[in-house]
Design a protein that fits this description.
Elements lengths: L2 E2 L10 H13 L9 H20 L8 E4 L2 H13 L7 E5 L4 H12 L3 E5 L9 H7 L4 E5 L13 H10 L3 E5 L18 E5 L10 E5 L25 H35 L6 E3 L10 E6 L10 H10 L2 E2 L1 E2 L2 E3 L2 E3 L2 H5 L4 H5 L2 E4 L6 H24 L1
Parallel strand pairs: 1-11, 3-4, 3-5, 5-6, 6-7
Antiparallel strand pairs: 2-8, 7-8, 9-10, 10-15, 12-15, 13-14
Length: 388
């Protein structure tokens, strides 16, 4: 039995997405910037995809959608496209649980003299809006707070944070890569100025993303060339991936409410099946949470304290089950999860984090079998410990 539970890492392309890619590559392969009929057909496809992606987040103006090579580029463009407008360093606010695509640009800017505030989070990974407002200074020009945290699933109070930013005339960006297509988003009512998306998180192709840019907001390009994407992201658009993104976005929009509830039911089932497993402690906020996301650490009072998430991932993989771990391996050395550390977990717990994320092909039987397999692995680890 093969069970894939790593949809937060990537999703398999939808069959209709693959059909679209095949059609574009064989019949509509023109350059959208060309003036002849091949280019015109390609340009029409490009603008159709722009409308479809805009529809995913409720944007009424498709021109607010800027296509990129992925969520990371969208995040980087939001950060550097704003901050490069200033001749001298200013102040930037992020959370302490950002994806590296935001955290590392902030580190770079700090090394260039920018003042960076990394907001603390509670034990569930949530930013306190009071802390956010207190952190705003006269020279605060940008804030970036992740919408849904990929490692622990916590949803941030984006509407409240965005409203605070707008009150203080601070540009507000959110990385919605994990949230889009899983929770309702409407940028016409949500007080955000910039919002990042990724195609391969919603059954599109890897290597394609988008940045929503509010009308009237000035953004400096970081790539220079032919002036594509409203002169903000030069380079011939990757039409097959973008057209695929459009199809995936339309499908996600159509199925969002029903699929979100189905995923929420699977999530609840998994937490319930493992509720009495005394080795495991759920992480993240159970009430403000991505609907497809389940995560745990090994409890500090468990005899298995010291068991790493990477070890659990490997053992489940041998059982044909794919999940992920939060800690990262650098040069052969296992590092604790910075996200879990920011949430107040111990060093040992921060090394033990695991994430299960459900998707379109996940069924109740998959969750039940995974719970059984995980329990068996933990029992075997306990037995091995008693023998040593």
């Amino acid at each position: 039995m093969q069970i894939y539970l790593d949809y937060s890492a990537t999703t398999p392309p939808h069959p209709l997405v693959l059909e679209k890619v095949q059609d574009v590559c064989t019949a509509e392969w023109g350059n959208p910037s060309s003036l002849h009929q091949w280019g015109n057909r390609a340009a029409t496809l490009l603008e159709m995809a722009r409308m479809q992606v805009a529809g995913l987040i409720g944007a009424t103006n498709p021109d607010n959608i800027l296509f990129t090579a992925g969520g990371t580029e969208a995040d980087n463009l939001a950060i550097f496209g704003m901050t490069s407008q200033f001749q001298s360093p200013q102040h930037l606010i992020i959370s302490s649980v950002e994806h590296p695509a935001i955290a590392k640009p902030a580190d770079y800017l700090e090394a260039q003299g920018w003042q960076v505030t990394r907001l603390p989070v509670d034990h569930y990974g949530r930013v306190n809006p009071v802390d956010f407002e207190k952190a705003i200074q006269p020279n605060t020009v940008l804030a970036s707070i992740i919408y849904g945290q990929s490692e622990v699933g916590t949803l941030q109070p984006i509407a409240e944070l965005g409203a605070i930013a707008r009150k203080h005339n601070v540009i507000f960006h959110t990385d919605a890569v994990q949230a889009a297509g899983r929770v309702p988003i409407n940028v016409e009512t949500l007080p955000v100025d910039l919002l990042s998306l990724s195609s391969h998180k919603i059954y599109g192709l890897q290597g394609t993303g988008a940045l929503y840019v509010r009308s009237g907001l000035e953004l400096h390009p970081q790539l220079f060339g032919g002036g594509q994407e409203n002169k903000l992201r030069s380079g011939t658009q990757g039409l097959p991936g973008i057209a695929a993104f459009g199809v995936a976005a339309e499908l996600a929009t159509e199925n969002l409410m029903a699929e979100s509830q189905r995923l929420r039911d699977l999530q609840t089932l998994c937490f319930e099946l493992l509720a009495d497993c005394h080795h495991l402690q759920p992480t993240g906020d159970r009430h403000h949470r991505l609907p497809h996301h389940i995560s745990f650490v090994i409890r500090d009072d468990s005899p298995l304290k010291g068991l790493t998430g990477k070890s659990i991932v490997r053992q489940l993989n041998l059982a044909g089950i794919g999940i992920s771990a939060g800690s990262a391996c650098h040069s052969g050395t296992l590092s604790p999860s910075s996200i879990l550390k920011a949430m107040g977990y111990s060093q040992a717990a921060a090394l033990s984090g695991i994430r299960l994320s459900c998707g379109a092909q996940t069924q109740k039987e998959d969750i039940k079998w995974t719970a059984i397999a995980l329990r068996q692995i933990l029992r075997q680890q306990t037995a091995n410990l008693l023998l040593t």
